[in-house]
Design brief:
The protein has about 230 residues and is an alpha+beta fold. The chain has one domain: Mitochondrial biogenesis AIM24 (Double-stranded beta-helix, 4-Layer Sandwich). The chain is built from 5 helices and 19 strands. The chain has helices spanning about 50-55, 90-95, 120-125, 185-190, 210-220, and strands at about 1-5, 10-15, 25, 30-35, 40-45, 65-70, 75-80, 85-90, 95-100, 105, 110-115, 130-135, 140-145, 150-155, 160, 165-170, 175-180, 195-200, 205-210. A hairpin with a 5-residue loop joins strand 1 and strand 2. The chain is globular. It starts with a strand and ends with a helix.
Length: about 230
């Protein structure tokens, strides 16, 4: 399997299957185009419980599997918002914990399941839901980035405080928790909400410059209502 990223503002990843039998899976509706010689099969990709779990993590219950029937077939998966597509070799990274909605597509050797934050309060009050996605296994996975990506390699004990919506994912060695913004004036007048995500190294953290939920909220406030 080979791949290339096409486009800048609204990118897609185009996959070239080197031989028959190679495949990719994605959430329903992410496929943009494909050549002849590819067979599609839709399933829960692991059973009903895994499908329901993905729904809670912000993905679709059903996954579409695309398998090449001949060498040279191509298929592309497009991002849903303006930003980037980030390829990650799961075998080399050792797996990632990602926010809901970050997953675009992956090879069949990559496992996608839901996971809970270590502290229930982290998700309950974090603003993005307490369910995250655990990506493990072997092969390539492609993540959606809103805006531009920013990669930080945290040293042991190094702390990074981030707005929750700007976190894409992080290695399992990174500790994740939510802390309260200090100061009454900061809480009510600072415009950043009540909580921040606290990430503690060691490990790699992937951030995005745009929080699409905040962007959509600003747009919705400009829409006239009767």
């Amino acid at each position: 399997m080979q791949y290339k990223i096409i486009g800048d503002t609204m990118p897609a990843v185009e996959i070239l299957f080197d031989q028959a039998g190679e495949s990719m899976y994605t959430q329903s509706g992410a496929m943009a185009w494909m050549t002849a010689g590819i067979e599609m099969n839709t399933s829960t990709n692991g059973g009903i419980l895994k499908g329901v779990g993905r729904m809670f993590a912000g993905e679709s219950m059903f996954m579409a599997n695309y398998t090449a029937q001949a060498a040279g077939a191509k298929i592309a998966f497009a991002s849903t918002v303006a930003g980037e597509i980030l390829p990650i070799n799961v075998s080399e990274s050792g797996g990632m914990i990602c926010q809901k909605g970050a997953f675009l597509c992956a090879e069949p050797g990559v496992n996608l399941k839901i996971t809970l934050t270590k502290k229930f309060s982290s998700g309950l009050f974090g603003g993005e839901g307490f369910i995250l996605q655990d990506i493990s296994g072997q092969g390539m996975v492609f993540l959606e980035i809103d805006g531009d990506k920013v990669i930080k390699d945290l040293a042991p004990g190094e702390v990074l405080k981030v707005d929750t919506g700007n976190v894409v994912g992080f290695q399992r060695s990174v500790q994740y928790e939510i802390e309260t913004v200090k100061g009454i004036k900061n809480i009510f007048l600072g415009g950043e909400g009540l909580f921040l995500t606290r990430l503690t190294g060691p490990g790699r953290v992937i951030l995005q410059t745009q929080n699409f939920n905040d962007f959509a909220g600003r747009i919705s406030r400009l829409i006239p209502t009767r």
